[in-house]
Amino acid sequence: MGDNEEPQGSRSPLAAAPDEPLPHPDPHRATVLVIGVIATVLFVVLRFAVALGGHEPLPADVWWDDAMLEGMSDAGLVIAWVPSIVGGVIGAPVVGILIIVLFLWRRRRWDAATLAVAIVTVTAIGAPMAAVIARVRPSESLAESVPTSFPSGHTAVATTIAVTLGLLLRRWYVWTLGVVWVVYMMWSRTYLHAHWASDVLAGLLEGIAVACLVWSGMQAYRIRRAMASQSSPQPDA
Asked: Residue 173: helix, strand or coil by DSSP?
């Protein structure tokens, strides 16, 4: 090992990285792509199931909503409002921008671009879809009343950010914190009766699909740039 090299395991997950494209394909890209496709298919299946039911709550939705109603408490409401605010219309973009700025500050421009594209994509897909589907929220909703229940935008954005960061940073604690945050968000949205259980499940699938497909696409684009750069003639010295 040369004097200027450091062990791979010792590098911080947000350590400054060269801006050059990856010279070789990521060995996990095919697996991530498959997961993204599977999540997309499952999302479509769930969408059809909701449509076939006339956009009414599924039996599992009613059961879960009743369970949340029976277990409601003042302390639970305070706990539930935290992810709802942090991952809301204002909170989620602020969090995303802060992480992107941190990546840029650490000279990880590709990671910043990947996260930015993922957040923009999931928002561009989810918000219009929810408006078109116009599924009515639970009647006891404490958070929102607009009929844009399917899919859960809070859950979709939270999942997209969590999975994208996990794929970019490759640290077990990043994945662990991401899973905890997404589950917390899913519970919060149903505890506040802002969504049916199938809405947050759809948001989860949408977030996984977008994060995996965007990450895979950005990886492919980096490889293509690297190959083009290597094959282009170099100027004479």
From this structure: helix
Retrieve residue 64's tokens: 């879960």
Where on the phi/psi map is residue 107: left (φ > 0), alpha (ψ -120 to 50), or beta?
Answer: left
pTM higher than 0.70, yes or no? yes
Return all residues near 193 (Cβ < 8 A) that are at least 6 apart: 65, 68, 69, 137, 138, 139, 140, 141, 142, 143
* Structural tokens at position 213: 């497909």
In three-state form (DSSP H/G/I as H, E/B as E, the rest C), the secondary structure along 122-142 is: HHHHHHHHHHHHCCCCCCCCC
8 A C-beta contact, residue 194 and residue 141:
yes
Query: What amino acid occupies position 235?
Result: P
What sign has the CA pseudo-torsion 124, 126, 129, 134? negative
Tokens of 216: 């895979």
Please write the tens of the pLDDT for every residue from 39-98: 999 999 999 999 988 888 999 999 999 999 998 899 999 999 999 899 887 888 899 999
Q: What is the pLDDT of residue 71?
A: 87
